[in-house]
C-alpha cells in the first residue's frame, strides 16, 4: 500500500465517520420532533374530545355553573364574616369568590341558553 492510498483511506474513513455522526444526529432530531408532534396530536385530540363533551352536555354546564355560583357565595359570606379580624385575607377571598361567582354565572347563562336553543 502506498502512502498516498493510506492517506486517502484515512480521509475516506474520516469523512464516512463524520457523515455517519451527522446521520445519527439528524435521525435523533427527527425522532424527537416526531415524538413531540405525536404528543401534541394527543393533546389536541384530548382537547377536542373534552370540547365535544362540553358541547353535547348542556346540563353539565348548568349544574357546574350553579355549583360555582354557590361556592362563590359561600366563600364571600365566609370572608365577610371574618372581615374584621382578617382584612387582607378576606379581601383576597372576596375577590376570589366574586371571580368564581362571575365565572359560574357566565357558565350558568351559557348553559341555560344552549339548553334552550337545543
Which structural class is indicated by helix and strand composition? Answer: mainly alpha
Give the termini distance in whole angstroms: 87 Å
Query: Assembly type of the shown chains?
Result: single chain
Helix and strand succession? HHH
SSE blueprint and pairings:
Layout: H1 3-56, H2 58-81, H3 87-117
Helix pairs in contact: 2-3
Short description:
The protein has 118 residues and is an all-alpha fold. The chain has helices at residues 3-56, 58-81, 87-117.
What would you note in describing this structure?
With 118 residues, the protein is an all-alpha fold. It has 2 domains: 1-56; 57-118. Helices cover 92% and strands 0% of the residues. It is built from 3 helices and no strands. α2 (58-81) runs antiparallel to α3. The protein starts with a helix and ends with a helix. The mean pLDDT is 67.
Describe the structure using short key phrases.
118 residues, mainly alpha, 2 domains, 3 helices, 92% helix
Amino acid at each position: 500500500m502506498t502512502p498516498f492510498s493510506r492517506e486517502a483511506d484515512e480521509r475516506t474513513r474520516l469523512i464516512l465517520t463524520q457523515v455517519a455522526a451527522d446521520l445519527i444526529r439528524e435521525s435523533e432530531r427527527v425522532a424527537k420532533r416526531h415524538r413531540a408532534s405525536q404528543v401534541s396530536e394527543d393533546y389536541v385530540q384530548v382537547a377536542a374530545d373534552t370540547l365535544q363533551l362540553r358541547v353535547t352536555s348542556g346540563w353539565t354546564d348548568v349544574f357546574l355553573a350553579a355549583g360555582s355560583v354557590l361556592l362563590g357565595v359561600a366563600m364571600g359570606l365566609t370572608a365577610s364574616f371574618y372581615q374584621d379580624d382578617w382584612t387582607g385575607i378576606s379581601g383576597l377571598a372576596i375577590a376570589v369568590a366574586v371571580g368564581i361567582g362571575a365565572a359560574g354565572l357566565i357558565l350558568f347563562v351559557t348553559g341555560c341558553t344552549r339548553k334552550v336553543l337545543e
